[in-house]
Design a protein that fits this description.
9 helices, Rossmann fold, about 55% helix, alpha/beta, globular, about 200 residues
Length: about 200
């Protein structure tokens, strides 16, 4: 690729975000970071991977256990959510500085907002479409899948809004918003690439 590009993908749960990200990575020949961010942040920080997984895109409620951990120390490698967010943000910036990448979620659009080479995308689909995707891959009923989608989206919104002071999923926050059910996974990836070229990002 002649130009460096960072594609940040926000997504509703079951909205096809990860599938589109990997399709983009394949078509553009650039790496995709989703759960890989957790492993890399853990490696960079020296904290366990489980610590990052526990708070991944969730804003945990203040609890008695966190009070005791912060005041008296914790044998289980305690770290505050804000501290984990800071370390993960540093990892995201390192990745972006090294070259082109596709980063899924984790407030990457906000963290990299000062970089001119970014393209911020949000992917959605109607709830019934997302529930069908989730049910197919997880074995849940459609009703259970709908409830899971709504819960995950609430968690993502709370996390994003808390750390970015903006609104998750609101069109004005992103360069491009797409319903992945209209064109499918590959077609949505093609649309993002076409948009990126017309926008001068590729």
């Amino acid at each position: 690729m002649e130009k460096k590009i960072i594609i940040n993908i926000g997504r509703q749960f079951g909205g096809g975000g990860l599938g589109v990200a990997y399709e983009l990575g394949k078509k553009l020949g650039i790496p995709v970071y989703d759960k890989e961010l957790i492993a890399k942040a853990a490696q960079d920080s020296g904290f366990s991977k489980g610590i990052f997984e526990e708070s991944d895109e969730k804003k945990r409620l203040f609890s008695l256990s966190s009070i005791f951990a912060s005041r008296f120390g914790d044998t289980e490698n305690y770290m505050s959510d804000r501290g984990l967010f800071k370390m993960q943000s540093e990892t995201i910036r390192k990745i972006a500085e090294q070259g082109s990448a596709i980063i899924v979620g984790r407030c990457s659009d906000y963290i990299l907002r000062d970089m001119e080479c970014t393209l911020d995308v949000f992917l959605t689909s109607p709830l019934e479409v997302r529930a069908a995707r989730i049910a197919e891959r997880s074995g849940l009923s459609l009703e259970e899948a709908e409830k899971l989608a709504e819960e995950k989206d609430r968690n993502r919104a709370e996390y994003y809004n808390y750390y970015t002071f903006t609104d998750w999923g609101v069109a004005s926050t992103y360069d491009l918003c797409l319903d992945s059910s209209v064109l499918g996974i590959e077609g949505t990836a093609d649309m993002i690439i076409e948009f990126a070229r017309k926008a001068g990002k590729l």
